[in-house]
User: Which sequence fits this backbone?
């Protein structure tokens, strides 16, 4: 059986824990050795890291060779007869993939075969563009990207690296962007559905299944932003672009909900949490400006605006409920108590609720003349600011809970961002230097306090672990 | 209730100490999950050659179909 990858720090943790379990009588010597045998040795681990560096270098080399080949072909391309052009294109694609097969199964050189296939996929895309050019097939550029992505995707599923997944996701993102943006200007006929790139969820679903099955959080991190991109563009394809900000914020909240559906400490949750936090914080940054809300009143089509807001909220609630029901029916209650399952979701659900409340608030004020004044926009501005601060502190506390630096640092960065933005809004124009200085002193003190809190908490944890071991 | 997964402690309190999984049922569930994933990985690995061949075949088929369509349009417009 293939040994599972393990970093040096994880290996050290495992060895410590096994020692602890052995002393507690939970596992015997043979069982402990059998567990260690499941994972790669330190030598294999360092070799794997070297392989990653080699992968990157060969990938860059393949891209340069592909670029060189393209330039060589294009230099004399127009002078070649069309049948020769077609022959060159088909031979180049078939030859590159043939080389991939030979390297993989003939010479057993898996790394090099991955790059031969990658090179072949780049040539395949170039061939699609050149054949379309030869026969003047330029009616639908987006479909060219779809066919390119489909061919690459099938190969990506049967290879071991994320390289072809990266290419697939890039192509699908371009396809979705071109297709949905260009569709905005299309007049819908009766009974005609807009082009919403219906096959994207199938691509993304299979890609995510592959990622979970291969235990690759990196690949999850490729498909999650693709799905988010598609979701964000959906209202645009329907030509509903009133207050798109709340919709984007709700997509961020949905990603945070999905992140917290994962078991605690799961690495697969990281991409969802990262992109969800970035989307929510990005939107809250914009909404936290008082001046922004004053120019934000116009809702051209109330019905679609409300449907868009409610649909994304219902989707979030549906995802939460489905995950909740699945976990309770699987009998994992002792694994992940329902209370802890629900309590982890307080912030993602609050974010979804905040976006819903802000959208409904504007819908309620629609058509009124009075609310355009400063007081009426005070509530959404204040809520957005509170949302920013709560999200920043949630990330800091999350980092503390899982003892991970990245989310905690993200929370600190978000907090700093909030303080800089408020400085720019309230003190920037008037030059009230002392006020700004006070604010920055307060921010510095808060972050210093957090760092000290984390430090003492870590020390306390270590002490309690030590006492338990004694 | 497994204390490992209980996040109901308050900020500022020390986190409950991590304990090894001491429940046979938990261990069985984990083993079943992992072996299911391994079986799925092995099944996919078994079809690797055919999968790659299908992918390459599809790419060549797309290029040939484009060529045929283009040639057909070219001849039709020429006539």
Assistant:
């Amino acid at each position: 059986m293939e040994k599972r990858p393990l970093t040096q720090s994880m290996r050290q943790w495992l060895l410590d824990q096994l020692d602890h379990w052995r002393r507690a009588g939970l596992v015997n010597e043979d069982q402990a050795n059998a567990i260690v045998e499941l994972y790669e040795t330190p030598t294999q681990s360092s070799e794997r890291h070297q392989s990653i560096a080699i992968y990157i270098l060969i990938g860059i080399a393949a891209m340069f060779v592909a670029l060189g080949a393209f330039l060589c072909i294009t230099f004399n391309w127009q002078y070649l007869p069309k049948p020769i052009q077609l022959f060159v294109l088909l031979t180049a694609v078939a030859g590159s993939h043939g080389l991939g097969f030979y390297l993989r199964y003939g010479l057993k050189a898996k790394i090099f075969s991955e790059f031969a296939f990658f090179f072949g996929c780049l040539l395949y895309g170039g061939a699609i563009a050149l054949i379309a050019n030869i026969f003047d097939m330029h009616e639908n550029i987006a479909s060219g990207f779809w066919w390119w992505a489909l061919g690459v995707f099938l190969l990506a599923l049967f290879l071991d690296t994320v390289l072809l997944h990266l290419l697939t996701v890039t192509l699908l993102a371009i396809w979705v962007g071109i297709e949905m943006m260009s569709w905005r200007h299309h007049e819908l006929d009766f009974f005609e559905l807009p082009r919403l790139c219906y096959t994207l969820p199938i691509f993304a679903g299979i890609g995510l299944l592959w990622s979970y099955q291969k235990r690759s959080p990196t690949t999850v991190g490729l498909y999650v932003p693709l799905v988010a991109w598609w979701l964000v563009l959906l209202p645009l394809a329907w030509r509903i672009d009133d207050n798109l900000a709340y919709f984007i914020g709700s997509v961020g909240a949905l990603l945070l909900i999905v992140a917290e559906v994962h078991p605690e400490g799961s690495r697969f949750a990281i991409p969802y949490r990262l992109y969800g936090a970035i989307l929510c914080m990005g939107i809250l940054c914009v909404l936290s400006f008082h001046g922004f809300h004053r120019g934000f009143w116009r809702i051209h089509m109330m019905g679609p605006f409300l449907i868009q807001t409610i649909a994304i909220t219902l989707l979030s609630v549906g995802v939460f409920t489905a995950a909740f029901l699945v976990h309770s029916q699987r009998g994992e209650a002792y694994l992940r108590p329902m209370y802890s399952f629900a309590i982890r979701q307080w912030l993602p659900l609050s974010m979804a609720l905040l976006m819903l409340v802000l959208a409904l608030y504007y819908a309620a004020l629609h058509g009124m003349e009075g609310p355009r004044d400063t007081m009426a926009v005070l509530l959404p501005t204040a809520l957005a600011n509170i949302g920013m601060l709560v999200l920043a502190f949630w990330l800091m506390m999350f980092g503390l809970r899982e003892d991970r630096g990245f989310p905690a640092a993200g929370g600190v960065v978000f907090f700093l961002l909030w303080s800089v933005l408020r400085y720019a809004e309230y003190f920037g124009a008037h030059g009230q230097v002392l006020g700004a200085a006070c604010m920055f002193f307060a921010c510095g003190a808060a972050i210093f306090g957090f760092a000290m809190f984390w430090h003492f908490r870590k020390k306390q944890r270590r002490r309690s672990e030590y006492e338990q071991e004694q | 209730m497994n204390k490992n997964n209980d996040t109901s402690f308050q900020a500022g309190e020390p986190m409950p100490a991590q304990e090894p999984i001491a429940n046979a049922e938990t261990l069985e569930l984990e083993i079943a999950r992992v072996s299911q994933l391994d079986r799925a990985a092995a099944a996919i690995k078994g079809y690797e050659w055919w999968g790659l061949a299908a992918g390459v075949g599809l790419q060549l088929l797309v290029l040939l179909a484009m060529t045929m369509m283009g040639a057909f349009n070219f001849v039709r417009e020429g006539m």
